[in-house]
Amino acid sequence: MPVRVHIHATHRQFTSGQEAVPVEGKTVGECLDQLIKQFPGLEKALFAKKDKLLNNIEVYVNHASAYPNELVKPVQDGDEIHLITMLAGG
Amino acid sequence: MLTPSERERYDRQIMIGEIGEEGQKKLKGSRAAIAGAGGLGSPIALYLTAAGIGRIRLIDHDRVALSNLNRQILHWEEDIGKKKVDSARMKLKGLNSAVEVETIAETIMEDNVSDLLDRCDVIVDAMDNLPTRYLLNRCAVEKNVPFFHGAVRGFEGRAMTVIPGATACLRCLYRGPVPQEKFPVIGVTPAVIGSIQATEVIKYLLGIGKLLTNRLLIYDGLTATFTEFAVARNSDCDHCGSFARKE
Predict the structure, then answer these.
(1) A3-85 has which fold?
(2) Which of the residues B70, B167, B229, B238 would you substitute to probe the A interface, choosing the one with the greatest number of A C-beta atoms within 10 Å?
C-alpha cells in the first residue's frame, strides 16, 4: 500500500487534475522526489532549490504538521502526506 | 447587569445553555481588538457586535474602494473613498448602538502595534498580509492575550486560535518570508472563516467549548470540506519559544 500525496488545488494543474497521487518512499523527501518524477511541473511549485521547500509550502503527515525538517520525516506504507500552501489574504 | 432591552435583544442566545445571562454579561464586559476591517474583519465585527461584545476596537488604515465590495460587506457603494473604520463604525452602531466601537485609522507597524492593541481581552487577525499578521502574533504572545488567526485565498480559508504560552502560535510553523500577492477571493470565503474566528472569540470569552488550538482548520469551499491538521509548539519559535526576544 503506497504513500498517498494529497495535492493542493492550486497544484493540480501539474498533476492533470489528480487530487491524490500514490508514491513509494521511506521519507517525505523520497516521496516528493517520486512525485516530481511523475509530474515535473510540480518541482518549481514546491521547491526553491534542491532539498529546500518554498516558504509557503506546508507539509502534513497523517494530518499532523511535519515541520521542521519535513523532508527527512519517515513515512510508511499507508501514510498520507498533504501538501498545503500558506494563505495570507483577508 | 443586563437591561430589560438587552435581555430582549439577546434572548435567543441567552437561551443557549452555555451562555445564559451570566455569559451575556461577560460578553458585555469584554473588549475585542480586530485588526483589519476588510473581508475577514467585516463578518467578525458584525457578529461580535450582534452578539453584544461590549467594546470593539477596529484598526485599519485603508479607504473603501469599489474592488472591495465583492467581499467586504461592512462597506457599501456610498462608502467608496471613506475610511474603512468610519464606514464600519456607522454600520456597527446602526446594528447595535450599545456597543462601543473604537476606530483607529493607522497602519499597524512594529513601533505602534503594542499601543494599538493595548487593554484588549482578545486580538483578532483579519489582516491581508503575513508580515502584519506576524507583528500581531508576536504582540499577542508578549501581552499574553489570545490571538485568533484567519486567512483566505480564493475558495480556501484557514483558522487557528492561539493561547500564548500554552499552544502553538502562528509563528511556530515559520520557514521564511513569502512574496506578497494580490490574492483572489470571493466574499463567501471570508464569511465562513470570519464567522469561525468570531465563534472562537465568543467561546474563549465565555470559557466554553473546545478551542481551535494546536489545530489548523482548513476550509475548501469548492469541495465543501473542512480538514483539520495538528500543529505543535515549536520550542525554537522566535515568538513564543526559546528564540523569543527578551524585554
Answers:
(1) Ubiquitin-like (UB roll) (3.10.20)
(2) B229
